[in-house]
Amino acid sequence: MKIQVNSDHHIVGREGLTVHVETAVTAALAHFHGRITRVEVHLNDENGEKAGAADKRCMMEARVAGLNPVTVTDHAQTLHQAIQHACSKLSAAVDHAIGKFNKQRPQGVAQATLAAAAPAALDGEEPPTALDGDESIADTGHA
User: Fold this and answer.
1) Is 121 left (phi over 0), alpha (psi -120 to 50) or beta?
2) Which residues is 73 bridged to in the sheet?
3) CA 78 to CA 91: how far, in whole Å?
């Protein structure tokens, strides 16, 4: 998973902050390993030099393989709070998007496809019960 961090010119400590963002995003999305290809993070101080309540913004967009991008935004008093809250929101949103996708797929499609593609038994032989490791149906010679 590639993590890209962007910030406006009001954000200081970019290198340390980038490491913090990468660590937080990786930890929050670890259970989606392999499903997420890229996460873009945008950090902004919406009031610039002025102080204000909840003026730090963290927007995250996750690119999930086979789905539309998932985007969340959080505003907080500090960047660290905004990053943590956005990570939590992103994890929940990705989980929801994947669950919704899985629910929309017809049940049993993968099993029916696998059963239809399984090699038939030859005369006097028992049908194969499972494929070994990386062996595919085409490799068995029964395709």
Assistant:
1) beta
2) 59
3) 20
Angle at 52 (CA atoms; ends 48, 12), nearest 5 degrees = 40
Q: What Å distances lie between residue 33 and 1, 19, 79, 120, CA to CA?
A: 8, 19, 25, 35
pTM of the model: 0.69
Determine whether 87 is exposed, middle or buried from the number of CB atoms within 10 Å of its CB (0-12, 13-18, 19+): buried
- Token pair 């960047």 is found at 79
Q: Does the domain formed by 2-104 have CATH 3.90.180.10?
A: no
**What are 36-78's pLDDT values in tens digits?**
999 999 999 887 676 667 789 999 999 999 899 999 999 999 8
**Domain ranges within the chain, ordered by starting residue:** 2-104
